[in-house]
Amino acid sequence: MRPDTPADHTTEAERLLRTAGRYPEDREPLLLRAAAHLELAGDRERATGLYDELLSAEPVNPLLIRSLKASNLWEYGHEAEARAIIDGVRSARPDRPEPWAIVAETLEAHDELEEAEATFTGAARLLVPSSDTDDISYALQSLLTGRHRVRRLLGQAHDEYDTLADRLHTADVPLDELHDPKRLWSLGSSDPAELQAEITRLRSELGSYRTALSRPFPVAVLHWPEAELDELLAAYPELESEYPTYRAHLTDIEASLRELAASGTPNLGIVPATVPSYEAFAASESSSPANADLLPQYATTLAARGRATAWPPARGAECWCGSGRTYGECHGAE
Prior knowledge:
The longest helix has 23 residues, at 192-214. The radius of gyration is 22 Å and the shape is globular. A three-stranded mixed beta sheet has the order 1-2-3, sandwiched between helices. The protein is built from 16 helices and three strands. By secondary structure, the protein is mainly α. It has a domain at 219-329.
């Protein structure tokens, strides 16, 4: 059940903070989620405190945390400090789309449309592949969609990035319609047909947002390295039916992911499993590690903690199995 009230969000934040205390290796993603819930609860000063705490501890994603902090600060009156952080993030030229998108959307939310467009465009020029669009991640697609929205508000003509955003967009309602400033005007109409048409458009847009929110982490498949799988089966032979051999395990991973991809499932990933981690998870669920029903739940939990690696690997990257060969020469081969 999703939190709905400020009290619910505060309760969820406290739960995440307690979990971070038990799993210090996952502290950063857990504290980021806790800060997000505190913002939704209206406790923005405490959220800022969590961002500062993370930044003081050599975080993995400092630019992401800085961009989130800037967005939060601006919302409760610290505009000058937020602008200074935003300038720093843009100057650092992040190599991931998320900090760029957060900064640009913060500027957009405060009617700084020209600055937002410049930020989105700078990110696109830096991060979007020049020719091959097969490697466009969901985060990068969202950035292109945000850029399309801002440029539509500014009345700017389509360029190559807007065309790419249109091509990647899969909802029934085109981006030009979703991002049409005049759509909001129709909400004041007394014509039932116009109102119904706008409701249909908004439902489509909401559906896209719900899809994004429902998959904040990859749909993940477990990968047990060979030594870990040997240890797992030695300790819990009941799981041999799940993993008859290591070779079969690797084949099943690739087959499962290809089947999911063929069905249209986005954001696929692979998470490395270890026996101690799995045993700790089973204990937290008051269950036995021999219970095969725990395996998909364990995979989802690892993915939610940011442990998943995107599948398929980028062109020329090493195969996910650890063979040392490229993916195209290994499990990516037809």
